[in-house]
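User: structure tokens for N-acetyl-gamma-glutamyl-phosphate reductase, please.
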Amino acid sequence: MKKIFIDGHSGTTGLEIQARLEARPDLRLLLLSEGDRKNPQAKAKMAAQADLVILCLPDEAAKEAVNLYQGLGTKILDASSAHRVDPGWVYGLPELAPGQREKIAQAQRVANPGCYPTGFLLALAPLVRAGLVPQDYPVTIQAVSGYSGGGRQMIEEYERPQGEAYALRVYGLDLKHKHLPEMAAYSGLNRPPIFVPSVANFRQGMLVMVPLDPNRLNLKGAQPQARVLEVWSQAYGTEGFIRPVVGAQLLDPKFLQATSLNGTNQVELAAYGHQDQLLLVARLDNLGKGASGAAVQNLNLMLGCEETTGL
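Assistant: Done. Predicted tokens:
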């Protein structure tokens, strides 16, 4: 039986991961008391007993934890954004590119992806890799997430009695959102995209939207949607969690719902538009494939378990 220590299990992502793991008979969760959860000695002792530590901490605290666990030989899966572009860590998106799953399975240190980058990279990276989208294309991203993506403070802000019900809030207006480095690093683009995120008054769910001009793509005479779906199908044809949607199966015909995949580890990809305009859309649960579901998937790979266990 493998032993798992969740460092930061009382946060939003930590609680979600714990809920997904605690019923599994092949795992034993090691949990600190509330009084010990910030005690370095207690944390190090618990980590030394574990086969794998999951960090569900703010970025700086995650870096401190990695230093604390240095030399223990324990595998580490970091759910923060602290190590996502660190060359000493493997990026934890198994479907990113051929060979990525094997890198995760062999790694001692894996960085769980961000929720927005997961949708963006799954939609765009194979198109860049196939030469359909030029590497110098000026990509823009518009995205909306449920308020759970903001963590406990934002959840309380939206759910407290008589709280103000914000319909939609756009943020990251300095265009320096913390997810941008991983978007730039793993997309295959040679310039960072412009990223405009927003949060709306629903708890969880996410849409990531990337508009493209077909006239600037290398379509080789093909119809834009058909060519995109062809590349996606080649990239994800054997993937259980990624679903390129074709033809009449397009996500929603008129009003696209952000919440349809809540509670799953699935991502749906669709291409809307016509000969002169194209819109890529990724739909996922920001707490599922965008956070805790991805962590469980990576944990399974790192421990040699069946990848879909618990998902």
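User: Anything notable?

Assistant: The CA atoms of residues 48 and 72 lie 6 Å apart.
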